[in-house]
Protein: VANG1 protein
Organism: Phainopepla nitens
Amino acid sequence: MSAAMDTESTYSGYSHYSGHSKKAHRQGRDRHKSPRSKDGSRSEKSVTIQTPPAEPLLGNDASRAEEGQDDNWGETTTAITGTSEHSISQEDIARISKDLEDSVGLDCKRYLGLTVAAVLGLLVFLTPIAFILLPQILWRDDLEPCGTVCEGLFISVAFKLLILLIGTWALFFRQPKADLPRVFVFRALLLVLIFLFVFSYWLFYGVRILDSKDTNYQGIVQYAVSLVDALLFIHYLAIVLLELRQLQPMFTVKVVRSTDGESRYYSLGHLSIQRAALVVLENYYRDFTVYNPALLTASKSRAAKHMAGLKVYNVDGPGNNASGQSRAMIAAAARRRDSSHNELYYEEADHERRVRKRRARLVVAVEEAFTHIKRLQAEEQQKAPAEMMDSREAAQAIFPSMARALQKYLRTTRQQQYHSMESILQHLSFCITNNMTPKAFLERYLNPGPTLQYDRDRWFSKQWTLVSEEAVTSGLQDGVVFVLKCLDFSLVVNVKKIPFIKLSEEFIDPKSHKFVLRLQSETSV
């Protein structure tokens, strides 16, 4: 109870300081926005979309103002804001609306394909049963008696249909992972093959058995058994084409993210371009670090600062064109390029120094906070019931002691948009429940993880567009390049074929390993 009261008083102080700091933060943000409107670097068609202010732990404005803050900032003032801004143009909004319309079409196409496959599968399973039951219904009195062999065929048909049902469920009835732009060629060919196969069996059954009212019932049952056997072989063919064919690696693909140049290599088998793109995206969410656009703003702001320091004066009068001014600016920028690397070096060194300092403060704060928690044993829980807390209450009790250090570190490393206060409390409660160390708790924040580690609403890549010069249903070939685009960045995929390796063998006789010691006068031997 006392820990809960301390937590409530801490959060009340949190909100008191936040009220004063939000006013100063809002005035500072207005000062930051005023020169940007004069600069004219943004398009006139741009709009600003603001996310709800209650979710992020820290806003992006704090990261923009970080360069002008010293290491002692925040000792007496704590600012918590939730404004996250992303600017996109009207063309991007139009493209988003077009993608939504296309997604509606993809849903209709997906449900249509599932409906056709379900109807065809139902027809396949009911056909052998219909072959056996129709003679019993239509001309039962004229049929020859079914002997022991015929009754044994009933058991064979029943078990084969059960095996076919289980195999079909395991191979085809899966939760779809993605909506592909085109149909899967091999699956479509299998559906066409099954339809033609069942149609031909029905045609033969109608002409030779229904029209003539064949009385050999054992032969009719044998005909149904042959149909089930053929369906089992088609299912085996489906396993080979859909699953086994792509297992052997044949190509190596290099995936490069266009914004920061992060790359990975993957080995793929015989796949179409669209299915290879799906495999690349599945590995991207697992292997690539999360895309952080805040890390790219430093270089852009530095380049804009260098260009803003250049002034061009037209001494020849207003009659000259703007090409001379542009050439003068390029020449001046080239002359200043020799000294710009020093500024870059000292900026990066200062940033690394601040990151190391705030990381050390965070590690110490978290270790001290974890020392105040002790897991009670079963016999100790009966002695002091008033002081017991669950993992959520314990996380809320120790979080204020580490909150400021964690906030300042996330601002410095520009990770604040990926971690909300609720997600940090949940992670802290999870670590306390599973008796994890402070180092295990800090692993998520000290090193940026893959995209799957964060909440889905923090992802900058949810809907992708496949761009390829080749048909997306064609197979991978050496030298094929395709691009996966999303709203903020793209993945460039370059395909290379694994070379043919010629391996020879050379035999060495174990008895040939004989050596002689060569002595010289200079040696000590």
In short: The chain is about 55% helix and 5% strand. The longest strand covers residues 490-497. The two ends are 82 Å apart (CA to CA).
